[in-house]
Amino acid sequence: MSYRAVHDRLLGGEAWRWALEALAEPGLPAVRHPLGFVCLPLERDGGDGVCIHLWSDSLAHAESTTSQIHCHSWDLVSHVLYGQMRNVHVAVTEAGPEATHRVFEVVSGADGDRISPTHRTVRHATELVEVFGPGDTYTLPAGRFHSSVVPEGGEAATIALGRGRPGSRDLSLGPLDGAPHHVSRQPLDAEEAAAAVRLITAHLT
User: Fold this and answer.
1) Over the range 13-45, which residues count as b (16 or more CB within 10 Å of their CB) and which as e?
2) What one-character DSSP code corresponds to residue 98?
């Protein structure tokens, strides 16, 4: 289940088959991600990671303490298993007195996310909206601000592959007066995690 093995199967048109195999493993963990989806982490090896992400109103989700606009410290490869995904590219410019948001650094650890305000104050504008459906694969380089949007009331699941890029940081836009804080990742209990697996499996079969 390494990054390379999953990436090769994705390129070979076997993403859905791999997902079904991965979801068949008993007792898969799942956590509520602050960006509004449920994450099933499947592999972590150094700077490489493989997860399945699920957006569904049938499961409670965490709320962001900053905003949905963020950038990763890693290069993303995302494959849509089902549903519609909008990848909204955001242009961020330094703004001084006319700023609307502050840039926050997000440092993730085993106990959650440490979120710290930086000196950067900015404005932002939508630059490009890409729309992807089942079977589509898209990429996003580290350092590019964006948000992942599922139409209201819609459901979607993706395979997310991340490869860390040295020197990059995880960042998020938040309120100008936001203070440093810590956000704990909320694990789903066994029943909810099993429900998430069943939901994805049902869509794929």
Assistant:
1) eebbebbeebbeeeebebbbbbbbbbbbebeee
2) G
128, HSE (Cβ side, Cα atoms, 13 Å):
7
Backbone torsions φ then ψ of 109, nearest 5 degrees = -145, -175
Q: Which of these, 173, 147, 149, 144, lies nearest to 65 by C-alpha position?
A: 173
Q: For residues 199 and 2, what is the distance between their CA atoms, to the nearest angstrom? A: 24
pTM above 0.85, yes or no: yes
> Cβ atoms within 10 A of the Cβ of 8, count?
12
According to DSSP H, which parts of 69-179 are helical?
A: none
Topology of 3-204 in CATH? Jelly Rolls (2.60.120)
Cα torsion 172, 173, 179, 185 to 10°: value is -40
Please report which confidence band the pLDDT of residue 3 belongs to, taking 50, 70 and 90 as the band edges. Answer: very high
Confidence of residue 95 (pLDDT cuts 50, 70, 90): very high
* DSSP 3-state of 147: strand
